[in-house]
Amino acid sequence: MLTDTKIYATTRTYRTTNPATGETLKTYDVETSGGAEDKLAKAHAAHKDWERTPVEERVRLFRVFADLFESKAEDFARQVTLEMGKPIGASRSETTMVPAMFRYYADNGPTMLAETHGMIQGPAGPKATITRKEALGVVLGIEPWNAPLYQAMRAAAPNLFLGNTVLLKPAEICAGSTLMFDEVFAQAGFPYGAYQTVLASIDQISTYIADPRIRAVTLTGSDRAGAAVGAQAGKHIKPAVLELGGSDAFIVLPTADVTTAARYAAQCRLVLGGQVCMSPKRVILVGHDVAEKFIPIYNEVFESTEVGDGFDTKVTVGPLSSQEAVDQLQAQYEDAVTKGATVLVPGGKQDGPGAFFRPAVIADIPADARLSTEEAFGPLGLIHVVDTVEEAIEFANSSVYGLGGTVFGESEEAFEVASRLDTGVTGINTFAGAPIEIGFGGTKRSGLGRELGPHGMDPFSNVRSYVIG
């Protein structure tokens, strides 16, 4: 995920740009040192009262927030499309995820926080035990641009319900949409300082992580960014949840419904123009018979895309998030073709204003090509054909990443293959996605920890045990 230059910017401003036109929308000043300290102090002070707020009141506030956000959803959707370019329909879909997340924790959070009781046998007789999941304090969230609303609230919702307070640092290019949350939290009645968007600089992020009032960090971004933040958190003995890059495999077995698999793979690859961490970036076809059926259908989906401004309702693939993103993907594409990759659907950087990249499909990617080891963050389909299931598993696991994966085939065989993949989330005859109800995260260089679901609070909680004599 291309977040390094956004998270670790040395610029004194956050600048939002319409990627469809290249027009600068707005600039925002980075927090002053005093401003950054003031927000941390407010968050720290708010935590002391918020953690003692009855669970029933948190449930009420979460429901109020969900209703209020829905009343403003169209404004949020249009701001996201304006700032990062995704088709307006996709932005509207993203806005449905935010209230769903808050209602999920309103419905299930009390059970997640329920204390457990037990008995232990001590030398002087039995003793009662109580175990509780308690808040830590202030959590720092560092979030990306590809789903700025969902990602920000994926960090905020479980932490707020647990009783933590949140400082949320957005991607530079989507500052406007994230800042809109502050007003919604205030109008919903959340305590002053419980949630704050902070436009921090690299130095301020480092200062925050070192400050004892920050008790945990969560980041979604590239593995490079995650390694830097994880190292700083480790230095100061603080938990860090890192949801990083992915180069997910989509394996199609000879027993699969190939037509369905091909359409699924292509459509999922093109969601948000391929700018999704768990997009099925590497298609692995087992056998040439599968390839002969699969490739024409997959290619057809890529060829039929409508590329353009995200506000045009006919558009299925909008601009990439920035010209920088286009240039990186174009360099990866040209590198692979120069080194011998076969072009199945030509595409690439488009001339004219805007950060547009025509979806392309390539096969036979050489081992020394950049795309063999790097994440392709855009509408670029990569096809690999192997002879056996064992080769497919080996190739899928050869990536340094281990976020998600997909296997299509006869159910029992597909499950067996899926169980051997080094991933955090795996879909079997479906694309797993990132449902609110399950923990989401990866393994290897795709990160540490889990977000959402029943485990979304765990990394940010103090599991405290009481022994009563």
How would you explain this protein's 3D organization?
This protein has 469 residues and is of the alpha/beta class. It has helices at 4-7, 33-50, 55-71, 73-84, 88-112, 148-162, 175-188, 202-210, 223-235, 258-269, 288-303, 323-338, 389-397, 411-418, and strands at 13-18, 23-29, 116-122, 125-135, 138-142, 165-169, 195-197, 214-220, 240-243, 249-252, 282-286, 342-345, 348-349, 357-358, 360-363, 380-386, 401-402, 404-408, 425-428, 443-444, 447-448, 461-468. β5, α6 and β6 (165-169) form a beta-alpha-beta unit. α10 (258-269) crosses α11. The longest helix is centred in the first third of the chain and has 25 residues, at 88-112. The termini are far apart.
Please describe the structure with a list of short key phrases separated by commas or semicolons.
6-stranded mixed sheet; 40% helix; single chain; alpha/beta; 23% strand; 469 residues; disordered N terminus; 7-stranded mixed sheet
